[in-house]
Amino acid sequence: MPSRSRQLAAGRPLAEQVRSRLAEGMAAGEWKPGEAIPSEAQLARDFGVAIGTIRKAVDGLVAQQALVRRQGKGTFVAAHDPGRLMFHFFHVVGRDGTKSYPEVTTLDFRRDRANAKDAAALGISPLEKVIRIRNVLSLGGRRAILDDIALPAELFPGLTEKIFLARDNTIYHLYQSRYGINVLRTDERLRATLATRAEAQVLGVGEGAAMLEIRRLAYTFRDRPVELRISRVDSEHFEYHNTLGKAEPI
To answer: Hey, what's the torsion of the CAs at 204, 111, 178, 216, to 10 degrees?
Structure first.
């Protein structure tokens, strides 16, 4: 890799610039999901900065969950595999606390114009193109969640229903591997609601049944929103469970 030191400018913290360059490299596919990035010593030479500056930049990306350190092996680009989905982003469980990987069925895939709510959430102009996807998620053989997803079409050029359905991993892995969009964090808002007739028919519950609505915004680098997802959960048979922090050792 040629030296990148000329890309670093005065007046802005070097660690911040290095972090941005590394993020751009991941987004461009220079280091793919699951691959190791160069050692900190090599990066220090490439960027022409102190190794402490590199370590601070890498620490920032590890904290963002864009990179993962593996003891004795190096630092790797975090991959959105099923395990990461279950641990970081999926919080619906059975009433007995059972957590299982969801089976996803796509009911609708189409291109549309953004409405005012889409535009405000995704940071795009009203009437810009969005991709709308409707999925139903089943847990333990029972329909549990109805997902409505809106994506800025500009960020996902060429995404078709065929490509979406042919993915062999998670939806976030598709974003990452095909478009260089690494979902780093999500912001969720929960509220109680009642099932409409259409929702009730899809989920197999009664019209007016109690539901949990989860509004999730997914963000990539520089806090750019890349996905708006509205989930309606059958709250008679399922519940939301999210554990923050790590358990204390006994």
So the answer is: -50
DSSP state of 92: E
- Residue 59 burial (10 A CB sphere; 0-12, 13-18, 19+): middle
Q: Report how far residue 189's alpha carbon sits from residue 172's, in angstroms, rounded to the nearest whole number.
A: 20
Tell me the pLDDT tens digit for each residue of 42-82.
999 989 899 999 999 999 888 887 888 988 889 988 877 66
Q: How far apart are CA 232 and CA 201, in angstroms?
A: 13
Query: Which of 79-101 are b and which e, b meaning 16 or more Cβ less than 10 Å from the residue's Cβ?
Result: bbeeebbeebbbbbbbeeeeeee
Q: Where are the beta strands (DSSP E) in 89-223?
A: 92-94, 103-113, 129-139, 142-152, 185-194, 210-220
